[in-house]
Design a protein that fits this description.
- The structure is a single chain.
- This protein is α/β, with parallel strands linked by helices.
- It has three domains: about 70 residues, no CATH class; about 50 residues, no CATH class; about 100 residues, Metalloproteases ("zincins"), catalytic domain (Zincin-like), CATH 3.30.2010.10.
- About 35% of the residues lie in helices and about 25% in strands.
- The protein contains six helices and eleven strands.
- Strands 1-2-4-3 form a four-stranded mixed beta sheet. A four-stranded mixed beta sheet has the order 5-6-8-7, covered by helices on one side.
- Strand 5 and strand 6 form a beta hairpin.
- The longest helix is centred in the middle third of the chain and has 31 residues.
- The radius of gyration is 22 Å and the shape is elongated.
């Protein structure tokens, strides 16, 4: 069992790495596999904190070299989840084990632990998204019901999904779907998406009538929509 650490490369982008202890190694060195797996080779007798210090000093070199590897850049694991809507930040610790099952444990003081074979980013992302969906269901239900009552809308059912390109949708039966990633947006942006979908319960198109209805409920919808587009590009999940 070996623990996975996080190396900050640029902005809020972090890259996972491991410590590999070697009896043959004479010097600390950085190793990047053809699959993009990053590790620090540590000679026997050298303190672990020295290895962490070494790779952090070489972060620019690491960033340059991982960019030259042909693999999915989305394998950069987030070290925290910034839930702007709830004003919460959840720090994430990744712990690798031999278990084929990945577990997500919610600890005290807004800490999450992801345990298991965490080399599969798509599976880790699914686990994190499921956690977000559960958290979003309760808060989104309260928010959209309050908005519907305030502006005189009626909808049938609310579902929470995790989608890559859609923030929400509304069916002819007035069933509304919302993306759990709205948790990462400020309240005004999340409310804009909810109002947008509530307006579709009356206007099932994007006509001028639809946008007038949106503006009646959200006078700042244009700036909120622009902010949604900007912030959405920075999301890792």
């Amino acid at each position: 069992m070996s623990e996975t650490y996080q190396l900050q490369l640029a902005g809020d982008n972090y890259y996972p790495y491991k410590l590999v202890k070697s009896r043959r190694a004479k010097y600390i060195r950085i190793k990047i596999s053809s699959k993009g797996e990053l590790s620090v080779v540590l000679p026997r007798g050298v303190p672990e904190k020295q290895a962490h210090s070494f790779i952090h000093k070489k972060s620019k070199w690491v960033l340059k070299n991982v960019k030259n590897i042909s693999f999915d850049q989305k394998a950069i694991f987030p070290s925290y989840l910034d839930l702007k809507l709830l004003n919460e930040r959840w720090d994430i610790k990744y712990i690798e084990s031999d278990s084929n099952v990945i577990q997500l444990l919610e600890k005290t003081d807004n800490n999450l632990e992801v345990k298991g074979k965490i080399d599969d980013w798509e599976l880790v992302k699914k686990i994190l998204n499921n956690w977000c969906k559960t958290k979003a269901k309760r808060i989104f239900t309260i928010m959209i019901e309050n908005l519907a009552e305030e502006h005189g809308f009626h909808f049938n059912r609310l579902s929470i999904r995790s989608q890559k390109t859609r923030w929400g949708s509304c069916s002819m039966a007035k069933n509304i779907n919302l993306n759990c990633k709205l948790l990462f947006m400020p309240a005004n942006v999340a409310e804009y998406v909810m109002i947008h979908e509530l307006c579709h319960t009356i206007e099932m198109n994007h006509s001028s009538c639809f946008w007038r209805l949106v503006e009646d409920c959200d006078a700042d919808y244009k700036s909120n929509r622009a902010q949604l587009k900007k912030l959405g590009k920075a999301l890792i999940l």
